[in-house]
Specification:
Blueprint: H1 6-15, H2 24-28, H3 36-39, E1 42-47, H4 50-67, E2 71-74, H5 78-88, E3 95-97, E4 101-102, H6 107-117, H7 125-132, H8 143-160, H9 167-175, H10 181-193, E5 202-203, H11 204-220, H12 233-249, E6 255-256, H13 258-271, E7 273-274, E8 281-287, H14 289-292, E9 299-302, H15 322-327, H16 334-348, E10 352-358, H17 370-380, H18 387-407, H19 413-416, E11 426-427, E12 439-441, H20 442-450, H21 452-460, H22 475-491, H23 503-521, H24 525-546, E13 551-564, E14 569-581, E15 586-592, H25 599-604, H26 608-617, E16 629-636, E17 642-647, H27 650-667, H28 690-693, E18 704-705
Parallel strand pairs: 1-10, 2-8, 2-9, 3-8, 9-10, 11-18, 12-14, 15-16
Antiparallel strand pairs: 4-7, 5-6, 13-14, 14-15, 16-17
Amino acid sequence: TPPPCPARNSFISLALRPAPVTDQWLTEGQKLTDLSTPTKDLTLIEAPNQRSESLAIALALRDAADRGEVAALITPDRLLGRQVTAALDRWGILPDDSAGRPLAQSAPGRFLRQIARLFDRRLTNAAFLTLLKHPLTATGAARGVHLRFTHEYELHMRRFGPAVFDPKALIAWASTQSDPTCSAWALWLADRLSHFENISPRPIAAHLTALLECAGGLAAGPGGTGTGGLWEKEAGQTAAEMIEALTAAAPFGGTLSAYDFDALFTSVLNQGQIRISHQADPNIMIWGTLEARVQGADLVILGGLNDGVWPQMPLPDPWLNRQMRQKAGLLLPERRIGLSAHDFQQAICAPKVILSRTLRNAEAPTVPSRWLNRLMNLLAGLPDNGGAQALENMRDRGARWLSLAQSLDLPSAAHLSDPMLAPAKRPSPKPAIESRPKTLPVTAISKLIRDPYHVYARYILKLYPLNPLHMSADARLRGEVLHKILERFVKTRPSDELLPQNAATAKARLLALAQEQLQTLVPWPAARALWYARLARVADVFLENDRRPDIIGSQTERKGAYDIAALGFVLKAKSDRVDILSNGCLQIIDYKTGAPPTQNEQAFFEKQLLLTALMAENGSFVDFGPKTVQSISYIGLGTTPKTETTEITPHLLAEVKAGLIALISRYNDPNQGYTARRAMFSTAHSSDYDHLSRFGEWDLSEKTSTL
C-alpha cells in the first residue's frame, strides 16, 4: 500500500534520525523544499491542562464520527483514555477501548478495595458512609430499608458524633429508634465492621478469608444469605477470577501485615481489565501503542505526547543493572524506547494526524516527548523551507480545537438572553402572612435584624444547615463544651463552696469537671489539652463572679415564653444562667467563648439578653415568676477575659419592648420582604444560606428582588 504522503515519510524519517547523526539535518534538511506539504494534515494541540486536552481530543473524535470517518486515539496514558471516554459520553458516543475498563475502578473493585483498607486504617465516618452507600452493600430486598437507616444515622452522626465509627454508639442509637428492625440492622453492621482493629501479620489466605466474609456479608444485607450481587455481571466475574488466582498463589506469599496486604490486593485488582460487553461505536477507537501497530484509521490522534508518557521511562530493575543485563545477553531498556519511536513514526504517517500534549499536568510543567520535540525543532530550524510557518499553522489548527473545548461549557448568546439564566438579584422574598413564623427564639431576633433571609430559610422553608461529617475542634463545639462544664458546675455546687475560704476547692472541682467533660466530648488529645489550658486561665474570672456575696441562688438552662397576644407572636428563650440576688432582683448571664458584644452592638443588634430581661420581668420564666432584673452580663471567656454588663432600667426595657413590637409588626406586613444580608457585622462574615441566596451573583449595593 503506498504511503498517504511520501513527503511526510521523508520528513519524519529525518526528524527521528538517531542522536549521533542529527548533524544530517543541516544537509538533508535543505532538500525538503516545501514543508507545508508534509504538514498540511498535521495538527498540534498544546493544551494548558489535562481536562482541556481530553475535551479537545473528544471534540475531534466527535467531528470524525459525524463525518463517518474511522478515528483512533493512540496513547499509552490510560488516564487520558478514560478522560476522553468520559468526555465523549456527553454526546452518547462509546469508543471501542482496546484496554477495556480497569477492574479496580469498577463497582466490585472499589467495594473490595474499601473493605481491604479497613484492615490497616481506622474507620472514619466518611469511609463508613461511603461503604454503606455503595451500590453493592445490601443488594437484596432490604436495600431500601438499609438506605433509610443509613440516612437517619448520618444525620445523627453529623449532629452528635462520634468523630469516628463506633459500633457501640451505632447500637445505642438504634435502640432509641421506633422501628424494631433498626436494632437488627445495627447489630448486622457492627458484627461485620468491628473486627478489623489491630490486625497482626498473618498469611495471605487468612486476609483473603476475612475480606471475602466481610464483603459477602455486606453485599447480602441484614438477614440475607449468600453474597448478594457481588460476583454478578462482567465486573463481578472478573473480580472473582482475579481473587481465585490470588488464592491459588497465596500459600507462596508468606505472612503479610494488614498494610502490605492492602497494597498487594490493590495491585492485583489494578491488573484486571473488563471488556465492555455492550456495543461500542465501531468507528471511534482508543488504542495502546501495541494495538496500533496492526491497525489504521483515517484520523489518528497521538495523545499524551510528553516525556515520561511517550516514550515511557524504563522501570528500574531491582535485580540487574544495565551492565549486568548486557553481559547476560538480555535486552536493554533502550530497546523499548526504540520500539516507541517506531510506533510514533508509524502512527504519524496516517492520512490525518493530531498531535496532542499538555503544557502542565496536575503537579508541574511538562516536557514535550522527545519525538515531538525533534519534529518541532526541525521545523523551527528550516524557516527558508517554510518550516516555521508550517509549525505555526499546525498550532493554529490545534488552537481551533482548544477554543472549541473552552467554549463548550460557555453559555451561548441565546442562553445569555434567557432571563432564567440571568445573574440572580439580591433576594427579599415576601411569603404569605400565614407562612411567616409565629414563634422565634431570642437568638433569632439578631438574625432578623442583620440577615432576615436567614430567618426565612430556617423558620419558613425549614432548611437547616448540615453539620460537617467529621467533627472538628471548632468554635461551635468549644462553646457547647464550655456551657456544659459551667452548667454542671453550678448545678452540683455545694452551698458552702461560695465562701471565700473555699475558693481553692471550687477551682479544683471546676477543673476536674472540665477534665471529665473534655474526655467525654472531645476526642482529640491536642484540643483537650488546649481547651483545658484556656479554661484554667480564665477560671478565676468565672469563680470571682460566682462568689459575689449578693448572690443567694442560681439557675441554669431555664426556658421561658413571652406571648405578645396583640401580634399573635411568641418569643422563646433559654437562659445560660440566672442569678437570684439578695435584694430579690435577677442578674441574667450569658457565657461567650469569644469576645462579648459591645454596648452599641447590644443596643442595635445583639438583643438576646435584653429580650430575656424583658421576658423575666413579665413572668415568662415559670421557675421564678415576674421579678425585677437588675443587670445583664455577657462574660467572655476567650483568650482575653472580658465582661460587658448593662444595668437594666424601666426606660430601657420599654425601649426594648417597643423595638420588638415594631420589628415583629414590620414582618407582619405582607409587603415586607426578608432581605438577604441586610446588616451583616462585616462583609467578610458569611451566612449559612449564602449559597441559597446566590450571594456572589449580586453584591450588597444591589436593590432587592421579591420571590
